[in-house]
């Protein structure tokens, strides 16, 4: 007791505020806020948001897409070619010098569409070429998905991570890195409140006979060690060395169980 108040009454408001802040941070990571730091870093380093990937060739549904340049943060691309395939035969080739991603689909500007006739006849042109100022295609194929697949570093929002996982699983592509990023976004913000609960169990009832300096040093070292382990595991999972369910979910789950046990003890004290 301290001035008639138990530990649980003292710490409960602090725990509640900490969990609310962590929950708010998780919700923010489901919005474009998740890309704020990356945008700021690009502006500081280069003075603009023009980071791009070049010469990418990927498969999406029945389409094969080539990007000469793609700007994930600007959601635009240059030199795009889309090969529409059915039954292992190319039906149509769409080429455009520029394209932008808007409202869930790619809008190709000044597109050249070359349709290949399914049946070839002597004396007839097998190709039918037309041009369109605006051509919409690749619905749901977000440019930020590419950035997260091909870069070891790179931010992604929770919503985009879910959509990317659904997309890649449909293409039978490994989603380990995306799963690791998603678990980190969902679970790591709760590290601080969970550690607060754990450390509260080691807080002395009175500072009269306690070595506050030693206790504080021990708590700081404990936080650094636990954070170092969790951070290392998360990086190993993103690099493909460990499965994220083992290296991210399980350690946070163990920490949550320990916190719950200590919190129950705190309530009974």
UniProtKB/TrEMBL annotation:
The keyword Cell membrane applies. InterPro entries: LptG/LptF_permease (IPR005495). It comes from the Bacteria. PANTHER family: SLR0882 PROTEIN-RELATED, YJGP_YJGQ FAMILY PERMEASE. Keywords: Cell membrane, Membrane, Transmembrane, Transmembrane helix. It is found in: Cell membrane. The keyword Cell membrane applies. This is Permease, YjgP/YjgQ family. GO terms for biological process: lipopolysaccharide transport. Pfam families: LptF_LptG. It comes from Helicobacter pullorum MIT 98-5489. GO terms for cellular component: ATP-binding cassette (ABC) transporter complex. The chain crosses the membrane at residues 182-202, 209-234, 246-267. It is a multi-pass membrane protein.
């Amino acid at each position: 007791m301290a001035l008639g108040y138990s530990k649980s009454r003292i710490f409960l408001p602090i725990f509640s505020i900490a969990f609310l802040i962590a929950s708010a941070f998780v919700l923010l990571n489901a919005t474009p806020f998740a890309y704020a730091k990356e945008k700021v870093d690009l502006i500081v380093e280069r003075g603009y948001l023009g980071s791009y990937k070049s010469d990418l060739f990927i498969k999406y549904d029945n389409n094969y897409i080539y990007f000469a340049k793609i700007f994930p943060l600007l959601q635009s691309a240059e030199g795009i070619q889309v090969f529409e395939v059915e039954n292992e035969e190319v039906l149509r080739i769409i080429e455009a010098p520029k394209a932008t991603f808007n409202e869930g689909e790619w809008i190709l500007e000044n597109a050249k569409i070359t349709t290949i006739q399914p049946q070839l006849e002597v004396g007839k042109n097998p190709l039918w070429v037309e041009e369109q100022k605006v051509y919409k295609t690749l619905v749901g194929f977000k440019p930020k998905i590419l950035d997260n697949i091909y870069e070891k570093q790179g931010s992604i929002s929770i919503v985009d991570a879910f959509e990317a996982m659904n997309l890649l699983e449909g293409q039978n592509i490994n989603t380990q890195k995306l799963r690791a990023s998603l678990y980190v976004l969902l679970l790591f913000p709760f590290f601080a409140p969970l550690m607060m609960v754990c450390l509260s169990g080691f807080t002395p009832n009175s500072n009269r006979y306690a070595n506050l300096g030693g206790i504080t040093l021990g708590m700081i070292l404990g936080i650094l060690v636990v954070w170092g382990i969790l951070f290392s595991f998360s990086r190993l999972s993103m690099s493909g060395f460990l499965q994220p369910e083992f290296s991210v979910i399980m350690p946070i789950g163990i920490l949550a169980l320990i916190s719950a046990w200590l919190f129950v003890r705190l309530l009974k004290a």
